Amino acid sequence: MRRSRSTRAGFRSRARSRATVLTAGAAALIAALGIVTPPVAGAATASTPDSFSENSAKQIAALQSIKSGQTKTESKLDSRLLVSQKLRTQKLSASAVPALGAGTASTALVDIRATKVSDALVNDLRKAGAAVRTVSDKAASIRAEVPLSALPAIAARADVKRVETADQAITARELETKAGQGKTAPVETKQQKAARLDAALNQALAAKNRRAAEATITSEGDRAHNADLARQQYGVTGTGVKACALSDGVDSLKVSQAKGELPAVDVVPGQAGDGDEGTAMLEIIHDLAPNATLGFASAFTSDASFADNIRKLRFESHCDVIVDDVIYYKESPFQDWIIAQAVNDVTADGALYFSSAGNEGNVTDGTAAHWEGDFVDSGKSIGKFAGTAHNFAGAAGNQIFEPISDASSDNIPVTLHWSDPLGAAADDYDLYLLDGAGNVVSFSQDVQDGTQDPYEQLATPLFGGTGLRLAVVKFSGEGRYLSLTAFRSRFRDSADGLKAYSTPGVTAGHSSARNAFSVAAAPAAAPFGRALEPGDPANPTGPFPGAFSAASKAERFSSDGPRRMFYEADGTPITPGNVSSTGGEVRDKPEITAADGVRTSVGGFDPFFGTSAAAPHAAAIASLVLSGNPGLSASDVREAFLNTAVDIEAPGSDNLTGAGVVLADKVLAYTGASPQPYVQAVQPTVTGPDGGSTLDPGDTAKVTLPVTNTGDGVASSTSVVLTTTTPGVTIAPRAKSYGTISPGQTGVNDFTVTVPATQGLGVPVVLSAKVTFAGSFSPLTSTFALPVGTPSPVVQTFSYTGAPVAIPDNSQLGASVPLVVSGVGAASKVSVSIDGSSCTADEGSTTVGVDHTYVADLVGTLTSPSGASATLFQRAGSGGNNLCQVVFDDSAPALLSTVGSQFAPFTGTYLPIDPQTPLAGTSADGTWTFKAVDVAGGDTGSIRSVSLHVNGYASAGTGSAAGAAALVRPVVHAGPAIA
Asked: What are the pLDDT digits (tens) for 931-975?
């Protein structure tokens, strides 16, 4: 059933935010925390630059009294949630902190950081009324929507380390328009989005059917980076390389594919996300490296899920180049946290990783809101407690406030990190946001006593304010190196005399991982279309239709470096005993610059500005490099990028643009790129002794093996060695020459395979085809399983007959039903049906197989008794309701995702995303599982009726099914057998 979507988009819908922001539950958090409009200033004594007003001191003291008096269990709770709870229970007087309220929400989206994720913990959370969103075993983290009343009991558990307000994220996209202060942009509902996407898809398909498809759009970065000339000159296109992106989502993927803007994309099951920045990034990669294989996973489910997806793209999807445009606010600037650790894992395995430097501005252009440096004791204590305020002025005076620009003050996330190790912060710092009247508008004062992270985070009011200023208080402990950042804001001198202090180094997080490429932005074509703040100078213009040169300029919003790191990922100090401004390791970030302000076909991303657009340009050029130089090491690619970049801005490598702008032709010349063949064996066909396509025990059959060159270069001296690991099976000849195969062509040869009479029915013959050719990608090996036995025409059906199982909304846990198979043995075919007695699109229908509003929220999978899984469908059906009498058959012509919402309820036979029959292995007997996962909020439903259909094998001796061998493509060259 459909629920209210009023909070689905959260703050992300605000057009003023120049990026996509992860705020699932953010609106609920504001309601929970009770953040209200600051009261009008009364007669309170005003603050001075070097002192808190009496009003400020009293309010901070009231908050500190909560901190000082909290229990061990309460210290595990996010301080803002705890204070809100105290206000609701009147254990803290509302008059003591008039700008804060008790809040009205009954739940909060939280990240539960555990010692270990266990079934018991997850089950207990659900029993407590929590809606579990995601679970990460690797990071020992659970994201869940939790009743506020349940938080104390959860925090009291021994296996729970912390209960934190859900970490949020931002992409590095920059919008050319923004709402004025005090205004919000209209929120697009799921139904509106579904209708928009359906209309766009139908329009693209109609144009394609009329053969009137519009010319595809190419990023201006293709020209500005000389990638077009590089492909022509060096003959490389990205072939043999898989390039994958992480961002918010790929909502318009089918639309872009229908327009011819994108090929097939390997989307990690259940990780298509929400939004379209990923689609736009993929279009950029495809424009520059058109033959690279593409992949995607969302970075926006949670910080831990982001880290998990980075590893999935490398270790499961086998991506060679990975790029993202996301930062989570909790990412430490001083130590590689869980996301950076995932980057370290994939780069250690050989992947190239690119990440946006960010759009947080820079000191050169005066556009940053970042200060970092050693804590300077102002000598100003706070209330009756031991805390002292930080002096931002340092040797220049005494100023305990950092003023935020009025023009960039609405809904700004502010983070404070300091140089204690993650999970072992023994020095306790707090962060306060005050208005000009001295009221505490927002705060973060978590406990750090040796086992927590050195991190505090708050947000400015939704509609901003005037005279807002930040204060950092050392509650206890030693002086440490601090990092204070107000994302997408600016520190600016205030009207009442406060001076803004900014320092370089705002780029942080996983883009600063040692072996990642942090990418700055420079415009490829027209300038960014608005002033970042009133009175700013004009934004730079790009070179299009020319190429980048030394005269090019960085975007004024591009984040600067460098990045000082104090700890290795495991917490080992880099300079033991020195975690100050003279210690640690300084990493040169960003390293390179690439194009933004480019066209894509994706709605809302034409043009596409921000380092979000720059990073995929750099990743695409890296794909060309690997395509023309297979096996080139990551260090060699880095050397090539840094040594060939065109120096811009300050002479030499600088902390805004790194080594400069990457040009594809220069990089390919430096690495000596050349067109490479890429030759693989494809699915063989079998011709049995009777001319049929069945292979039975005792048969000697002809196996026709095609070999296709999908690469850029001619494959000469091509040969195949065909072997098997199946006992008793013989192959003759063992090897054959395929001669020369041109790009796009296929060579075919025949082999003879003899199967022993003792081969069990359904036990496949496994063939390994090793293709060797003159080229750097050689050799390439493919494995094929040839079924043995005559498929039985008898279909046995095994159905789920239990009660309906509710599918939890927006939860990785999903819902499952068992399908118990017995008496079949080996399976020749497996298919799944989602049944139903009467098909209707009515919400909550009891006569369909799966009732669920907005079927596109669902991901369906089938898991065999052995644990092997196949994805049946995802992002299918758009906004339509219910699946009824739907069959997933490995021989069907089309995926369910090709059907629009106008066809609901969804019926018919469709191709699964992954084949089902191979899951059976040598026996289909046992318990299979059908699982449905809801990956987006606002819609619910149930699994009601599902069946598994299995064909076994006919008894031995019944003979092969007659029929002609499958057709193959024309032979290019079939050489003699190799002795």
From this structure: 999 998 889 999 999 999 999 998 754 443 333 332 222 222 233
What pLDDT score was predicted for residue 363? 97
User: Which helix (H) or strand (E) segment is 619 a member of?
Assistant: helix 611-628
- Rounded Cα distance between 742 and 709, Å, is 7
In the chain, % of residues over pLDDT 90: 80
Angle at CA of residue 534, ends 529 and 540, nearest 5°: 40
Q: How far is Cα 892 from Cα 874, in angstroms, rounded to an integer?
A: 16
Instruction: Give the per-residue pLDDT at 184.
Output: 53
**What is the three-class DSSP state of 447?**
coil
Cα-Cα-Cα-Cα torsion 173, 175, 180, 185, nearest 10 degrees, comes to: -80
Which distant-in-sequence residues (6+ apart) come within 8 Å of 710 by Cβ?
239, 291, 678, 679, 680, 743, 744
**610, 19 contact by CB (below 8 A):** yes
- How far is it, in rounded angstroms, from Cα 393 to Cα 402? 9
Over the stretch 116-168, which tens digit does the pLDDT of each residue have? Answer: 999 999 999 999 999 999 999 999 999 999 999 999 999 999 999 999 999 99
- The burial of 119, by beta-carbon neighbours within 10 Å (0-12 exposed, 13-18 middle, 19 or more buried), is given as exposed
Element containing residue 263 per DSSP (H, E): none
CA distances to 193, 502, 804, 882 from 843, rounded to whole Å, are 19, 55, 15, 8
Residue among 630, 620, 621 nearest 667 (CA): 621
User: Can you tell me the distance from the alpha carbon of 95 to that of 72, in angstroms, rounded to the nearest whole number?
Assistant: 27
DSSP bridge partners of 51: 48
Contact 663, 595 (CB under 8 A): no
Tokens of 169: 């994220």
